């Protein structure tokens, strides 16, 4: 059982049956042919397989899908991030053009709400071009609908661009948003056995089912002394993203919001979620969302190594609280009295320690020339 608390609360919902058989057969054949797969290879194939990968599945996010995220819970989340972006733009000296980038924008809800709120600062959006970094074609379709049909899209419709990778975003000053993006990038797992670190791999059991196994010895030094059976998780996608950020010579700041611990931690946090409930990560490849904690202590070390500066992490409740979520929620309730209870409950879910307030963290990553951004500084 993964050690992470759910990033999504159970909420049964109807959904068409996924068909994981094809991917299961392909992975099993590959393991028989080439041997067990390291966890990152397995995770990547489950998520990103060109035909059967999870990100090819429409409707993964939302009440009718597998999981919900903060922007899907409350419009206030994206609005506050939009205001944060506008504040950043001012703090950067109002650069034009500005690249407003979102990594893994899901259904496009966060960006839609952020753009609506961003319009309250005159001149901000007219100077921005919006860049959505997204690998999934069903998600791109949803993003197009959210951003080109709603009011938020009208402000920027002419300057919306989609990219496969962050490196494709044109040069220039940039504000980057990544909500629940890093947790979806594959992790390697190393397991400490007999005084040595080994690759954790996925092999085939006697009845043909997938199972975790201990693979070959790996040269690795952990931050803290491990005990037998300890597991560390390594996410190369974080270094790749930070290197890509560091290559940008123009000023830039990235807001990373994700779930995971602020301190160094050992442990298996790989989790599968399907239809708003935990699932076995090995049971139905391609049919369940697979994620793992972001270790913010490790991320901060990588930020420094890339020559960038990290502010935070702070718990999501603190980040949203300092940006004025309570006041904004109260205003929204006042203008929508019929929905007041629902609006309040949604904010509570984002803020409460039992919901997303404590497990989720916000961290800003910036070029060293920029001042520490609010509400971190
Ligand atoms: N940020 C959104 C969605 C989070 S789910 C929200 O808060 O609701 C993760 C998103 O990242 C999905 O849109 C998924 O398709 C996308 N994604 C996953 N791996 C990716 C990658 N390597 N590059 C770009 N997008 C990716």
Describe the structure.
With 377 residues, the chain is α/β, with parallel strands linked by helices. The protein has a single domain, classed as Rossmann fold (3-Layer(aba) Sandwich). The protein is built from twelve helices and 15 strands. It has helices spanning 21-34, 39-48, 70-73, 75-91, 109-118, 137-149, 151-154, 236-247, 296-305, 316-322, 325-335, 340-351; strands at 37-38, 98-103, 128-133, 160-163, 174-179, 188-193, 196-204, 210-218, 231-234, 252-259, 271-274, 277-279, 289-291, 309-315, 360-366. The chain has a seven-stranded mixed beta sheet, sandwiched between helices. Strands 1, 6, 7, 8 and 9 form a five-stranded antiparallel beta sheet that branches. It has a three-stranded antiparallel beta sheet with strand order 12-11-13. A hairpin with a 2-residue loop joins β6 and β7. α4 crosses α5 (109-118). The longest helix is centred in the N-terminal third of the chain and has 17 residues, at 75-91. It starts with 20 loop residues before the first helix and ends in an 11-residue tail after the last strand. Bound molecules: S-adenosyl-L-homocysteine. S-adenosyl-L-homocysteine binds at residues 55, 61, 69, 71-72, 104-106, 110, 133-136, 139, 179-181, 184.
């Amino acid at each position: 059982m993964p050690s992470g608390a759910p990033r999504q609360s159970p909420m049964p919902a109807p959904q068409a049956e996924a068909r994981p058989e094809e991917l299961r057969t392909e992975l099993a054949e590959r393991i028989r042919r080439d041997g067990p797969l390291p966890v990152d290879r397995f995770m990547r194939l489950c998520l990103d397989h060109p035909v059967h990968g999870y990100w090819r599945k429409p409707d993964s996010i939302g009440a009718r899908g597998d999981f919900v995220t903060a922007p899907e819970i409350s419009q206030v989340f994206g609005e506050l991030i939009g205001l944060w972006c506008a504040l950043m733009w001012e703090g950067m000296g109002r650069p034009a053009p500005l690249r407003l980038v979102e990594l893994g924008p899901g259904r496009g809800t966060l960006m839609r709400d952020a753009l609506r709120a961003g319009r309250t600062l005159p001149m901000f959006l007219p100077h921005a071009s919006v860049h959505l970094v997204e690998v999934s074609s069903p998600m791109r379709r949803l993003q197009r609908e959210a951003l080109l049909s709603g009011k938020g899209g009208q402000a920027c419709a002419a300057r919306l661009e989609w990219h496969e990778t962050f490196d494709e975003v044109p040069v220039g000053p940039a504000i980057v948003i990544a909500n629940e993006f890093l947790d979806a990038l594959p992790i390697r797992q190393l397991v400490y056995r007999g005084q040595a670190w080994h690759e954790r791999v996925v092999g085939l059991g006697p009845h043909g089912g997938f199972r975790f196994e201990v693979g070959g010895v790996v040269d690795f030094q952990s931050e803290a002394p491990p005990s037998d059976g300890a597991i560390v998780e390594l996410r190369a996608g974080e270094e790749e993203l930070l290197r890509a950020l560091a290559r940008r010579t123009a000023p830039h700041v990235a807001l990373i919001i994700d779930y995971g611990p602020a301190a160094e931690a050992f442990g298996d946090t790989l989790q599968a979620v399907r239809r708003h409930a935990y699932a076995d990560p090995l049971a139905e490849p391609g049919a369940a969302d697979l994620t793992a904690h972001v270790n913010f202590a490790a991320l901060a070390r990588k930020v420094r190594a890339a020559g960038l500066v990290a502010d935070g992490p702070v718990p999501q409740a603190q980040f949203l609280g300092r940006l004025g979520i309570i006041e904004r929620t109260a205003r929204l309730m006042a203008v929508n009295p019929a929905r007041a209870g629902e609006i309040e409950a949604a904010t509570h879910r984002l803020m409460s320690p039992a919901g997303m307030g404590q497990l989720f963290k916000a961290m800003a990553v910036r070029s060293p020339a920029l001042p520490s951004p609010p509400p971190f500084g």
